[in-house]
Specification:
It contains 18 helices and eleven strands. The protein has helices at residues 48-51, 53-65, 77-93, 126-135, 157-173, 185-188, 191-198, 206-219, 221-227, 250-253, 272-285, 307-318, 334-343, 351-364, 372-383, 386-391, 397-408, 411-432; strands at 3-12, 15-22, 35-38, 69-76, 102-108, 117-121, 141-146, 178-183, 229-235, 257-258, 261-266.
């Protein structure tokens, strides 16, 4: 019988550690290290049932993909019920998920010391900044997480420093508190092997398409309990009418809860362009020099040349803001660069980017262009077949063959050839982001 056993959950000051044992058939999906997460607040007084939430939030989706059961000594009763709801949503979304059962020796529901605080997962991009604008009266604690797009690897130390500095500066300017969380969740899980097995079923990667909604929110549980947070917000990527198989959606995130805390998938009622409109209203009313950070290429500013930078700059213009005032170098000739990049497939695009460019195109039809270059680009965008642009993008054949080989290899063979797999996995991860 396939199984995952949470052997030990331990808090030492600000550090959480959990040991996990699996049945032989699931070993390939886990690394050799224990699950570890570092917070910036003591978690020693957090109940064990809440301490178990971060590791459960990451192993349960793997279990559900394999029809496996999960065993733990103690779990928060509210979160156990939440997992059942999340499992139902994910299994309805992904046909390859089989589901499983969580077995706990004890379920607990301890009365929290709630203080009425709220928290917001925050990067400074369009989505999380819009959520701040909408909930600024609550003065939410800004939460930044290292472990997914910024890995625990020393090679990402500089990127983490840039993110911390940017979020801290934003918090200081707005009289907010911060919370920084660092975890090895995607090296504790063998994410490349998960990708090898399940990429064929999803548009993105394992974590983006399956695990990151419940994973990132669950990771915050001990910190949220220690701080007395009653509400925890995660900004929506997509919006109503987009039915993509994505790991963070209202029917996932809104189910996530534990004793004292309810999570919220925020701003799903707004398209990305409407989120920029909300930010633009805030800029005109309160903060003319607000800076955004969305770049795919760097963390210490916006390169102004990647797909996301160009897409954000065009969106800012459609919301009557000048991109250069908010962190994006942009000139009229850049419209030709965008068109060329899209036509020649220079960017790896997924279905979500397609919907975002469609959102821009729909707004452009209602907007008078400011220049001939802008008018020409929007006329082309309206005629362009964005489905073709997406279908012509994708990972190289060599990556697809590598995933197939890893998927079919026995565990012992896989462990022998793991260095070759590791050398390729950085490229595979970028596709999923």
């Amino acid at each position: 019988m396939s199984s995952i056993v949470i052997d030990r959950v331990h808090a030492d000051g600000t550090t959480l550690e959990a040991d996990v044992q699996t049945s032989a058939d699931l070993e390939r999906f886990f690394g050799d290290e224990p699950f570890q997460t570092e917070y910036d607040v003591s978690i020693e007084d957090v109940p064990e049932g809440v301490l178990a939430i971060p590791v459960l939030a990451h192993v349960c989706p793997v279990a559900w993909a394999n029809g496996a059961d999960v065993y733990v000594d103690e779990v928060d009763e509210t979160f156990a019920n939440a997992l059942s709801d999340v499992e139902e949503s994910l299994c309805a979304m992904h046909d390859f998920l089989e589901g499983g059962t969580l077995y706990a020796k004890e379920t607990v529901d301890v009365e929290p010391d709630a203080s009425g605080e709220s928290g917001l997962l925050f990067t400074g991009g369009v989505d999380s900044t819009c959520s701040y604008v909408r909930h600024r009266e609550e003065s939410p604690t800004l939460i930044s997480i290292r472990g997914w797009t910024i890995t625990p690897s020393p090679s990402d130390d500089e990127n983490w420093t840039h993110l911390r500095n940017r979020v801290t500066s934003f918090a200081d300017d707005h009289d907010l508190e911060t919370a920084f969380v660092e975890s090895n969740m995607l090296s504790f899980l063998d994410h490349p092997m998960l990708l090898a097995h399940y990429k064929r079923y999803v548009d993105g990667a394992w974590y983006s398409s399956v695990g990151h909604g419940v994973g990132l929110l669950g990771l915050c549980a001990p910190m949220a309990y220690a701080r007395g947070m009653e509400d925890l917000y995660v900004a929506a990527t997509h919006w109503e009418g987009i039915d993509l198989e994505w790991g963070s959606r209202p029917d996932i995130d809104d189910h996530v809860r534990w004793t004292g805390t309810q999570c919220h998938h925020d701003s799903y009622d707004l398209t990305r362009q409407e989120r920029l409109d909300a930010i633009a209203d805030y800029v005109r009313e309160e903060e003319p020099a607000l800076q955004l950070q969305t770049c795919n290429a760097r963390m210490d500013g916006n390169c102004g040349e990647c797909e996301k930078c160009y897409r954000t700059a065009v969106g800012l213009r459609l919301s009557d803001l000048e991109p250069t005032d908010h962190g994006y170098p942009f000139a009229e000739e850049d419209y030709r660069e965008i068109r060329t990049a899209l036509e020649e497939g220079q960017w790896v695009l997924g279905q979500d980017e397609k919907y975002m460019w469609e959102d821009i195109s729909e707004r452009a039809r209602e907007t008078d262009p400011e220049s001939p270059a802008e008018a020409a680009f929007f006329e082309w965008l309206e005629r362009a077949d964005l489905d073709d642009l997406v279908s012509e993008s994708g990972p190289p054949l060599s990556h697809r063959l590598l995933r197939a080989g890893a998927r079919n290899a026995p565990t012992k063979v896989y462990n022998t050839v793991y260095p070759a797999w590791t050398s390729a996995k950085s490229g595979l991860r970028r596709v999923g982001r």
